[in-house]
Amino acid sequence: MSSGVQVVEYDSDWVRLFEQLRDFVHPVLSDIAIKIEHVGSTSVPGLAAKPIVDMDVIVSSQPDVQLAIQRLAELGYVHEGDLGATGREAFMPPLNVPWHHLYVCTVNNAEYKRHILFRDYLRSHAEDAKQYGDLKLELAKRFQNDRKAYTRAKSEFVNEILKRAGWR
């Protein structure tokens, strides 16, 4: 994966890609996954995004997180730890599937709740979603070789949306 920042206009194929990826992991997680959610910008119709699908696999308990780590390894996923988001485990996908971000966490994990709140707010507030997409396109040009600066620059907008959506 390149380290540059690329944001593109919305692509309805992202939904189909999520469904394919969900269907790929579901067989090994079906007895422990409460939900497999499409999150992040690719999950919001009309929103410009980095063309990388984000998925949250939700389980009920920490032992189920450990079980998911083992089972995803059988499919070729590489566990990367929590990458700084406590209680949310990240995975690098197998080489034979399209690049995506996969996370596993429990249903009460704060990062998961934040993902869903943000996604659902933008899905129901098209004007804010458009504003966010425009901001991301502009920031991707300005910070095309600095992913951290790109993320920092959009954080004020993200936090404002979360506040409007009721995040405390």
- The order of strands across the largest sheet is 1-2-5-4-3
Mean residue pLDDT? 95
Q: What top-tier CATH class fits best?
A: Alpha Beta
Q: State the secondary-structure class.
A: alpha+beta
Tally of helical segments:
5
β-sheet strand percentage: 15-25%
Q: What would CATH call the architecture?
A: 2-Layer Sandwich
- End-to-end separation in angstroms reads 34 Å
Domain unit count: 1
Please provide the ordered H/E string of secondary-structure elements.
Answer: HEEHEEEHHH
InterPro entries: GrpB/CoaE, NT_sf
Protein name: GrpB family protein
Pfam families: GrpB (PF04229)
Organism: Paenibacillus filicis
Task: Describe what this molecule looks like in 3D.
This protein has 168 residues and is of the alpha+beta class. It has a single domain, classed as Beta Polymerase, domain 2. 49% of the residues lie in helices and 18% in strands. The chain is built from five helices and five strands. The protein has helices spanning 13-29, 62-75, 110-124, 126-142, 147-165; strands at 33-39, 53-59, 78-81, 88-92, 100-106. A five-stranded mixed beta sheet has the order 1-2-5-4-3, sandwiched between helices. Helix 3 (110-124) crosses helix 5 (147-165) and helix 4 (126-142) packs antiparallel against helix 5. The longest helix has 19 residues, at 147-165. The termini are far apart. The relative contact order is 0.17. The mean pLDDT is 95.
In a few lines, what is going on in this structure?
This protein has 168 residues and is of the alpha+beta class.
